[in-house]
Amino acid sequence: MSENIHKWLIDGEQSIITEEVTEIVSEFTGTDFEKIVSIIDWMNKNLKRCNDQDKVLKIFATRDISKVLKEMLSTGCHDDALIFTTFCRAVGVPAKYVVGINKLDPKNRGHCVVEIYLHGRWILVDQSRGSVFLEPSRSEFYRMNYIVGKGLDSWDVGIKSFKFWEEKSKKIIELISKI
Fold it and tell me: Could you tell me the pTM of the whole model?
């Protein structure tokens, strides 16, 4: 693995591999792909969805992995990508947290996915939709979104709350309007 790939195995400020994370992922065995499937299965089995929109907006991007796991409550793709990215790194699979803003409705929509390094290549996993794309640039995510950023987690990309997301998306919308 090149040094650049190793960057995607380290902890982010929001995605620290804690003892709790290590304990959870210790159950995921097999090939790296089998571990990835186990992570998604674990997420589907253990996470509750927050259906209270006011609460979603209040806690969006404010929690680190420990808080998300303590509450076992996902606000959606953001928290799903945080858990998936952290768990991937904990099992030794390099992972990038990727944020996009919808090309057709940039004022109201965004999505978060994860790119993982398997078998010498980056592949895209849309952990919220259970999709895997061997060629990220040909995925629905890349077709439907402008890339806001890639990082260790959302805090690394500069999104620490819904307000940060609104500010970042406004800047992107301004840039898009100039094209």
Answer: 0.93
Cα–Cα distances in angstroms (integers) from residue 66 to residues 1, 19, 165, 166, 175, in the given order:
29, 10, 21, 25, 35
DSSP string, 111-122: EEEEEEEETTEE
Q: What residue ranges do the domains of the chain occupy? A: 3-177
Contacts of residues 74-78 at CB distance under 8 Å and 24 or more positions apart, as own/partner, are 74/43, 74/47, 74/48, 74/49, 74/50, 75/50, 76/49, 76/50, 76/128, 77/111, 77/112, 77/113, 77/127, 77/128, 78/112, 78/154, 78/159
Q: According to the model, what pLDDT value does residue 172 have? A: 81
Which residues of the chain are modeled with pLDDT < 50?
none
Query: How confident is the model at residue 3, as a pLDDT?
Result: 56
Both tokens assigned to 135: 């060629």
Distance between CA atoms of residues 155 and 157, nearest Å: 5
10 Å CB burial of residue 133 (0-12, 13-18, 19+) is middle
Q: What distance, in Å, lies between the first and last C-alpha atoms of the chain?
A: 38
The residue ranges of DSSP E strands in 10-78, in sequence order, are 48-49, 73-74
Let me know if domain 3-177 sits in CATH 3.30.465.10.
no
CA proximity to 94, closest of 2, 3, 7: 7
Residue 91, SS3 per DSSP: coil
Which token pair is 142? 């890349």
